[in-house]
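To the team - S-adenosylmethionine complex, inputs and output below.
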Amino acid sequence: MDDRSFVAAQDFLLASKTFWTKRLYPEIRQTYEDAAEKAASKPQDPADVAALLDGDTLYRYFSWLERHLQRFKYAGRYGLVPYHDERRAELSASLRNTSAELAPDLEMPNYYQRVDIHQHPGGVWSDELDGYVYERGARSTTPLMGAAHADLHHRFTELVASRGEPENILDMGCGFGKSTHPFCRKFPAAQVEAIDLSGPCVSLGAHNAGEAPNVRFRQMNAYDTDYDDNSFDLVTSTMVIHELPPTEMKQFFAEAARVLAPGGRMAHLDFYAIDGPFARFIHYGHGRRNNEPFMEPLAEMDMQASLAELGFTNIEVIPFQEAEGLSLTSHDAWRFPWTVIYAEKAVD
Ligand SMILES: C[S@@+](CC[C@H](N)C(=O)[O-])C[C@H]1O[C@@H](n2cnc3c(N)ncnc32)[C@H](O)[C@@H]1O
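Output:
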């Protein structure tokens, strides 16, 4: 496959997802609002919304497109997987001799192996090129943002930076480093530890870090790390907690509490604050169609109570604007319910 065909196909994918985001979504929303107005009682939860949209052709088309565009992204003639596979020798060589600390015997949790997350065949961890595939795929994850997709992590870093300067940072579930590098650049005097279950992702993270002296990429389970108690003053994650089943999510927050020093803070960018039954219905459907089954339990979790139980204080749930000019409340287009979960470890 030549580069032009691949790029054209991936451009087509992004354009189609943009159509889905900006044209189909508002129509579904309008269909729902019209039906809700005529309904005998006001819809209370996602099941009520489902009943109103049951059999609606446009909604079925919306759902089908969501699932199958994602499949098209990875597999088939112009997918990310075959494209990178054809360049295996060169890409694989680029990952040799990076500074990443790999743990080939690390046990992969059941939830991680059982689901091909994002419909990425084999998940983001089972093939040496998965970091590259994930990196390229991330460009079309947020169609509303288009080329501004990289801004997301910078904006998150700026929000965290506006509340203090850390010295020791742990980025849990760092992927290929898209979440880590902005912190390394923003805080050049800090030591940054970036950990992820995926060996291919941490290898690419280390490769992309080049000569950056203040970061270490390590293959490690975020809810079972080898760091000492009280060793960080900032723990972060972006788009990780919704990938964890409820039990592991609690272990993840407990591990953050253990490794944070008293008074240290944690900030997690994820999908949590969701306004109303229609938004929940769409988001839970997205979780199912994109192979992300734990989005729903995260959104239903009582965050204040769960974090307070673990010894966190000053807990905040902050709706997050992912790019300049995007409205948090507009219904003109589909968007993720971006949210920052922010808390401090209590000082005894
Ligand atoms: C959606 S990606 C986000 C990656 C990165 N934070 C970013 O914003 O680009 C989620 C990442 O979480 C990692 N992950 C999932 N469960 C994990 C765990 N228990 N420990 C460490 N990493 C985990 C996955 O391997 C994946 O790289």
